[in-house]
From TrEMBL:
<protein>
    <recommendedName>
        <fullName>Chaperone protein DnaJ</fullName>
    </recommendedName>
</protein>
<keyword id="KW-0235">DNA replication</keyword>
<dbReference type="InterPro" id="IPR036869">
    <property type="entry name" value="J_dom_sf"/>
</dbReference>
<feature type="binding site">
    <location>
        <position position="164"/>
    </location>
    <ligand>
        <name>Zn(2+)</name>
    </ligand>
</feature>
<dbReference type="GO" id="GO:0006260">
    <property type="term" value="P:DNA replication"/>
</dbReference>
<feature type="binding site">
    <location>
        <position position="167"/>
    </location>
    <ligand>
        <name>Zn(2+)</name>
    </ligand>
</feature>
<dbReference type="InterPro" id="IPR002939">
    <property type="entry name" value="DnaJ_C"/>
</dbReference>
<feature type="domain" description="J">
    <location>
        <begin position="6"/>
        <end position="73"/>
    </location>
</feature>
<dbReference type="GO" id="GO:0051082">
    <property type="term" value="F:unfolded protein binding"/>
</dbReference>
<dbReference type="InterPro" id="IPR008971">
    <property type="entry name" value="HSP40/DnaJ_pept-bd"/>
</dbReference>
<dbReference type="GO" id="GO:0042026">
    <property type="term" value="P:protein refolding"/>
</dbReference>
<comment type="function">
    <text>Participates actively in the response to hyperosmotic and heat shock by preventing the aggregation of stress-denatured proteins and by disaggregating proteins, also in an autonomous, DnaK-independent fashion. Unfolded proteins bind initially to DnaJ; upon interaction with the DnaJ-bound protein, DnaK hydrolyzes its bound ATP, resulting in the formation of a stable complex. GrpE releases ADP from DnaK; ATP binding to DnaK triggers the release of the substrate protein, thus completing the reaction cycle.</text>
</comment>
<comment type="subunit">
    <text>Homodimer.</text>
</comment>
<dbReference type="GO" id="GO:0005737">
    <property type="term" value="C:cytoplasm"/>
</dbReference>
<keyword id="KW-0479">Metal-binding</keyword>
<dbReference type="InterPro" id="IPR018253">
    <property type="entry name" value="DnaJ_domain_CS"/>
</dbReference>
<dbReference type="GO" id="GO:0009408">
    <property type="term" value="P:response to heat"/>
</dbReference>
Length: 331
């Protein structure tokens, strides 16, 4: 939560004050509270006041900033709790993580309104240097089911647009257009990154790589890179929530009499017991053989039974099926 600053009150001028009035009020106060002229306990108080005066002047001496500030309305009280209004068309407000706020010497209120800035004293005045955090970038990370299950390190390559190091993004040098970036101010850079994949990562979850996003402005921090996990389809296994599903094909005799068959799991082949008189579509549960759970443990693996005939049946086999068919008629 930020608190509203009454910049007019700080400079002791009316809301209708002219540029000249604002300037002379600022000069008078800046002289009065200049920390260099104070000593001891007075110095600290003066420093705070001096900062406040400079911030007020930064806003009210700049027509654009003053107009934006004025649009917040005249009914706010200095020190009142304040949040960016959601319904102010055409205005962008800046949001920062709590820990980032106030890092520049300006107040939270100021940074929410005008963004991150660095105040540089140059020749008696302040130079406005916008400083903004770079954009967050989202990209896809293709993983096989096995990679997602086991986790580990994966090397990925990606291209990113970087501010041209030769012309600092301006696109031109003293001699003319910057040949390095072709005047665009940007260059495309190939990056190789090591990504740590936690075991059992879910499809669609995002891995955050701090400071690998877009470049910041004016020395601002880089944005973050988010890699959205896309688990590729697997020929044998389907991931459904925390469970794995697969199929096992058995013959009619195995279904009728029961058997032991080999089937694949995430941990390799196992022997699966088919109980006698198993129907097609039955799902056999392998407890704890599924996907790793967040709090430890694992989901289950369901093996669906599919009954199919062998590719070829011999005469003798067909004779037996005929006998079975006769028997069925008599039941
Ligand atoms: Zn360039």
């Amino acid at each position: 939560m930020t608190t509203y600053k009454d910049y007019y009150k700080i400079l002791g001028v009316e809301r209708t004050a002219t540029e000249q009035e604002i300037k002379s009020a600022y000069r008078k106060l800046a002289r009065q509270y200049h920390p260099d002229l104070k000593t001891g306990s007075e110095k600290e108080a003066a420093e705070e006041k001096f900062k406040e005066i400079n911030e007020a002047y930064e806003v009210l001496s700049d027509p654009e900033k003053r107009a934006k500030y004025d649009r917040l309305g005249a009914n706010w009280q200095h020190g009142q709790e304040w949040q960016p209004p959601p319904d102010m068309d055409g205005f962008h407000f800046y949001t920062w993580n709590d820990g980032d706020l106030g890092a520049t010497g300006f107040s939270d209120f100021f940074e929410t309104l005008f963004g991150r800035a660095r105040a540089n004293r140059t020749g008696g005045g302040f130079r406005w240097e916008p400083q903004m955090r770079g954009q967050d970038i989202e990209s896809e990370l293709q993983l096989t089911l096995e990679e997602s299950y086991r986790g580990g390190e994966k090397t990925i390559q990606l291209t990113s647009r970087e501010i041209c190091a030769v012309c600092q993004g301006s696109g031109h040098l003293d001699r003319g257009i910057c040949a390095y970036c072709g005047g665009t101010g940007n260059t495309t850079v190939r990056k190789t990154l090591e990504v740590k994949i936690p075991p059992g990562i879910q499809n669609g979850s995002k891995i955050r790589l701090r400071n690998q996003g877009g470049e910041g402005l004016g020395g601002g921090q880089r944005g973050d890179l988010y890699l959205k996990v896309n688990i590729q389809p697997h020929p044998l296994f389907t991931l459904k929530g925390n469970d794995i599903e697969s199929k096992v094909i058995i013959t009619p005799e195995q279904a009728a009499l029961g058997d032991k068959v080999t089937t694949a799991t995430l941990d390799g082949d196992i022997i699966l017991t088919i109980p006698p008189q198993t129907h097609s579509g039955k799902k056999l549960r392998l407890r704890g053989k599924g996907w790793p759970l967040k709090g430890g443990g694992r989901g289950d693996h369901y093996v669906e039974v599919v009954i199919d005939l062998p590719a070829f049946l011999s005469e003798a086999e067909l004779d037996l099926y005929k006998k079975l068919a006769e028997l069925r008629k008599g039941v």
